[in-house]
């Protein structure tokens, strides 16, 4: 479909969804009389096939929201109050540049950029921003909060985060949906799984929560949080003892199998069942199905790696299709992330310009420990105290773990904070300046995906609303005020978007014409090995810097912390609410109305033991804090596990907190990521806010 008009004032613009979702949909944006009236999926883009999730289909509501920040704001109240007055761009940028220069004159590492996936764009994410902070010499940010455990673990196993094509799941005969609520977080994969189901495939969901996806599968295995590695080892045990191995594939294309084999033989079904809180028959039956059904595929997602042993669990699960030779089939194998397929085809160094650091080697601060790090004083091991934070594409006060500490850190009166935002989020409420950012409808960008293999281009559909400016433009203008004269700071957003991919591998004509271009990857990429490791073989045993993968119990659990488990006997996971995407969309009226209020799902057995009924206000607590919400007693929660749905903004909570008040800052075994779902709590009835104390 071209930009053919319904009337002279109506046109259609091609775009890409910017949000943190594997689907990275191609958009068709309808503009009438200069206003976006509809955002729809592109029917010609194979992964999108014309469908959008509820959230993004309401993107105009978000862009035209009456609460959107459309002018620069300067703080006039205390930090956290959210009291601001409008100011001009020149006043804001001049003051910000002067403040940053003064800090940088002492030590630029005292300045910290903080960003994640509010947009996944290569330009508005970390294009011009990375150039600016590299030139400045600011502290580097270790962006770990979502996927680094699984991504680095997959790299240890396969050489890069790579996997099978999403569309080939439609041809699979058995699909294990592991740690994923695909209906709400990976909609387009679910359409392929449904095709497979209609053709006779069996779908098995492995998840502590009985999600919407689990309800639609043939089988739901409700293992305890953090026990996925134990289950994977037991499946290997059964494949070994029941002749379920493809010995030829293992010999030719897998390194280190004898080491892992010895470990797997220590995990009979009974041992894993006791650890996972399931039955030995469930383990045996799953192993039997996986060995006998071809092609078999695994859709692994990031929920299962948000625990202490999440990285090891991903390494173990990644070996399952190598053991059975499932990779021989294009509809067999595994998909966690396809992002590694893009790495050779992106111009990352040109986009981010790490060479601007010169000989400097700034410290790296982990975004997942921002609560502790903002409260640290200068020390030999840490370096200078953080004096300034520039936040863009993130809302750390709501999304980072142990949020009481995060809020205290951002409340420091001596911390200079700049936030580029669309709305007055929990983090923006703590800013000295809030700068109005454009949305995806108003700027150029380029995108890779982590759930398919199409490069994407986003064209602005309308001019920036109000006084909003793109992230790239803000950092471009700050660079000018700070005297940075390198030619790269003059690159336009459009030039960066069009130049983001290597034109020899990603067809620029296709990007310009259709808004997307498919990478050239074999249908069955590892049918004959060829993994992106030095020797082309998957690594079952040791990997660089890592030993043989193994099961690691949670930080907080009966085995590793029995005294803690006695006081806080319920495991809590905090999966996303269906109508939110991390903390995005939490302020869109129609979506927040659909979610109603912050909820804690409880099994009837656990609720009855505590005298809790559905609809009651409850206090969820541990040593780190407490959180008020409404209880919903339902079959989605398994005994011993409660589900605190997130991520609500703290200001929308019943007592000004959200579920991250309870999570901790300990990191995963691989990837230095947060262990959000490795969390023990207790729940008690509550008559009102006074019970928080």
Domains (count): 4
Topology-level CATH name of the largest domain: Rossmann fold
Tell me how many strands there are: 27
Q: Tell me what portion of residues adopts beta-strand conformation.
A: 15-25%
Radius of gyration: 25 Å
* Main β-sheet description: 6 strands, mixed
Regions with pLDDT < 50 over 5+ consecutive residues?
1-7, 688-693
CATH hierarchy: architecture of the largest domain: 3-Layer(aba) Sandwich
Number of helices: 24
Q: Order of strands across the biggest sheet?
A: 5-4-17-16-15-6
Averaging pLDDT over every residue, what do you get?
94
CATH class of the largest domain: Alpha Beta
Structural class of the helix and strand makeup? alpha/beta
Q: Approximately how much helix is present in the residues?
A: 25-40%
Tell me, what's the shape?
globular
Describe this structure in words.
The protein has 693 residues and is an alpha/beta fold. The chain folds into four domains: 10-63, Phosphorylase Kinase, domain 1 (2-Layer Sandwich), CATH 3.30.200.210; 73-146 and 349-440 and 469-490, Rossmann fold (3-Layer(aba) Sandwich), CATH 3.40.50.740; 149-336, Dimethylsulfoxide Reductase, domain 2 (3-Layer(aba) Sandwich); 562-692, Barwin-like endoglucanases, CATH 2.40.40.20. Helices cover 29% and strands 18% of the residues. It contains 24 helices and 27 strands. The strands form seven sheets. It has a six-stranded mixed β-sheet with strand order 5-4-17-16-15-6, with helices on one face. Strands 22-26-23-25-24-27 form a six-stranded mixed barrel. The radius of gyration is 25 Å and the shape is globular. Mean pLDDT is 94; it is low at 1-7 and 688-693.
